[in-house]
Amino acid sequence: MNQIFEILEQNARATPEQISTMVGMPASEVEKVIKQAEKDGTILKYKSVINWSKLGKEEIWALIEVKVTPQRDVGFDDIAERIYQFPQVYSAYLVSGTYDLAIIVKGKNMHEISSFVTEKLAPLEKVQSTVTHFLLKRYKENGEIFQLPKEIGRLPITP
Amino acid sequence: MSHSIQVKALNNFISQKVNSVSPSGIRKFFDLLSSMEGVISLGVGEPDFVTPWHIREAAIYSVEKGYTMYTSNYGLLELRQELARHLELRYGLSYHPEQEILITVGTSEGLDIALRAILNPGDEVIVPDPCYVAYPPDIILAGGVPISIPTYKENNFVIKASDIEPRITKQTKAILIGYPANPTGAVMSREELLEIARLAQKYNLLVLSDEIYARLVYGVNHTCFASLPGMKEQTILLNGFSKAYAMTGWRIGYVAANRQFIEAMTKIHQYTMLCAPIMAQMAATEALKNGDSEVERMRREYDGRRRLMVKRLNDIGLSCFEPKGAFYAFPSIEVTGMNSEEFAEKLLLEEKVAVVPGSAFGQYGEGFIRCCYATSLTNIEEALARMGRFVNKYKK
After folding, report:
1. pTM of the model
2. In this complex, which of B33, B50, B300 lies closest to A157 when CB atoms are compared?
3. B293-310: per-residue pLDDT in tens?
4. Distance between CA atoms of A68 and A101, rounded to whole angstroms?
5. Which residues of B touch A151 (CB under 8 A)?
6. Are residues B34 and B182 in the same domain?
């Protein structure tokens, strides 16, 4: 069954018919599995990987290290939720090491990100400190390399 | 005028043995293809993955460190030790890394020197038909005589002991098999291989087993011929890294066999090849140590494509048995009434899809084409849509 999700993770547009052939399961069965997965949150969403820089869209991204004070009973979850609810936050992780939360934010320009940090994030009561790293170049994200593979030609006919 | 005389005279210098071997049947398509654009090729015989990065990286590192010299004729000991471990782990076989394993320049070299090591002029070698394009010519070039045994779609292209037995003569020296098979994708079960083993024992024949596709099987287990009871002594096991690890261009393979055979082959190897390239040997060592998950990732990917291709072929009316190994489907083109070369040529010119005519693999490959599914799903869908149109047009 995991095979169905592996195929979809690679190609969200694979049809149930294609998938059923590839995993050797009736198409109706595949559809059922997918429906169920959509319902129970195994499949959260279908998205496209867009290389926006191709379209000339300017975006600024930053990785922010956040040190926080955990709270009784809820640990880091409460403060994490306060932070990740902001629409500027693209990803949020609790990490081990010298800081606690790693968040990735995106904005139209540097000003937007800096005002998010200074006005929203840093003043939060439980936030002790932040370190902001602006991203300079994107090479790979979620397993996708941001460059079409170079075509290295195999000979068209080989024994 | 004088030019043609000269060409004719020069041809006299070519040995009769070489002249007696005809060039590969796929050459013609290659020339035709190279002048065309927008062709989807199902004609390749290699993975569409590049060698996994950790393997490439290990080779780069070895060059950086200055490993650019000859190795032992047998190959790097570390690689042979890894291979011995690998064969023990996978098949419960125990080969002595210092005496029973030889690293070769691809499985192709292994096959060539194995044949040259064992054949006297006129010795006969049994091969399945259809089979890999190089088997009969390699036998001839080694001074032997290939004896082709027909295999049939009805038997899933498996070679039958009962078909071999009547063809055994005093000259028969060996049986050369390659399963999982190129071009058919056929796999032989342990029971079917046992029949061959019994025959080999009864008539005291060697078995050359080319198991280059051993890691690419789907829903079945691969049986290593040497692991059959009593067969290790009588088997020359040929394998390599090209298909499993997507390392075709590295030209790296190995032979595992009894010490006497390895000694004999090493004689030829040391005087003709010296040793396999050290970079490729370093890469192969890394492949054996850390490559399993990548092999499995690629195998699973092939499996999905395999099912899709076989289904589509049957859907468009090219009946295809289920290949359980390698990365080829071998459908029948009977419905079109064409021979396989005609089919392949017309398909290429009219629909720009390249396949290999079955006749390139032997007389009994006629009526079939080889379609390789080591290509993207998009390519498979598009190629099969074009082929569907083509078959519809010519269906009898």
Report:
1. 0.88
2. B33
3. 999 999 999 999 999 999
4. 8
5. none
6. no
